Amino acid sequence: MSVPSATSFTAEVVPQAPEDALFGLMRAYRADENPDKVDLGIGAYRDDNAKPWVLPVVKKADSILFNNPELDHEYAPIAGIASFTSKAAELILGGPDSPAIREKRISSIQTISGTGAVHLGALFLSKFYPGTKKVYVSKPTWANHHQIFNNVGIPTVEYPYFSKETKGLDFENMKLSLLSAPDKSVILLHACAHNPTGVDPTIDQWKEIATIIRQKSHFPFFDTAYQGFASGDLMKDNAAIRYFVEEGFELVVAQSFAKNFGLYGERAGCFHIVTGPAPEAQSTITRIASQLAILQRSEISNPPLYGARIASTVLNDQALFSEWEENLRTMSGRIISMRKALRAKLEDLGTPGTWNHITDQIGMFSFTGLTEAQVLKIREDAHVYMTKNGRISMAGLNTKNVDYVAKAIDKVVREVQ
Length: 417
Fold this sequence. Notes:
Strand content: 5-15%
Largest sheet: 7 strands, mixed
Structural class: alpha/beta
CATH class of the largest domain: Alpha Beta
Number of strands: 13
Strand order of the largest sheet: 2-10-9-8-7-3-4
Oligomer: single chain
Order of helices and strands: HEHHHEHEHEEEHEHEHHEHEHHHHEHEEH
Radius of gyration: 22 Å
Number of domains: 2
CATH architecture of the largest domain: 3-Layer(aba) Sandwich
CATH superfamily of the largest domain: Type I PLP-dependent aspartate aminotransferase-like (Major domain)
């Protein structure tokens, strides 16, 4: 009588997966006992004391919710809290006068932050999009984009984006790649504060991108996690999406409220789909909404309440909304000041190379141009932690450590080629 196997899931069937690179970096940083260590890998805002910052307006909204005697913990509707999703749509599309909202050709559904929004969009396209079943993503892009699309059977293809020579946008090669992609491909675009490079197209470049996408009948998939956080101006940071909508594109948007509300762990997000202007647009969007609800039901049934309630409270109150805008200016302003400080210190040190890209880039992240060998060396010698591709979180810099980091960068650039 043979002995049955102890498991169906042997190493050949289920191999050990590699540790997520970013979470591995966080684990290594936490284990480091050096008092001078600096975390430049974290993708979350920190104040000048390197501490998490709960937005003052979020504290006010929290108090309002806590003191509401009518509040309960019943299920949210499958599509989420309507007072949240409707205002989220207005926020990203530029207000109630957006053509998509005015003509009722948008469907919005609450998601598990931006990750859930990207996933829901990918799942919807995998089932229903009649075009090319490939998604073109920037090289580089947020690493999770590849996993999310691959997990629903949509392969990712990279288009050129970041120029190592200029440390800016490789625009000409990007355009050539989009032109050579098969017609009706899905094109994933970062609306602002590109992750991980911090390099964004100008509005004129966005217009050229739109022209190519229309010419090729591509489908735009916008991912936006930094509206208001990037520049401090909500309307500036949604300019690309507004332009595409005004030009009549059919598109989708994955929207996160983790960064701009500091609601990282509360997982508040939205997925929006806008259909093109046509006599049957409202019928089309009704059908799409029905299918999105089925997909949502089969995965999470109902989205979580707390983060959406916080955001909804702020978005629906003019005084709180104005205070939120001021909080956004505080966060984006500190990031911008750290960019200026780091660049100035590197230039004062005469660090080999050019460093204008530090201030040319925008948002939480910056591609420094450091090589993997330099990244590993700076971690070993100075206990400064960043991802292997040289991306740093500007939120990890503050007035107390920026000089130390600049000197560490200067040293490693001189020593390691």
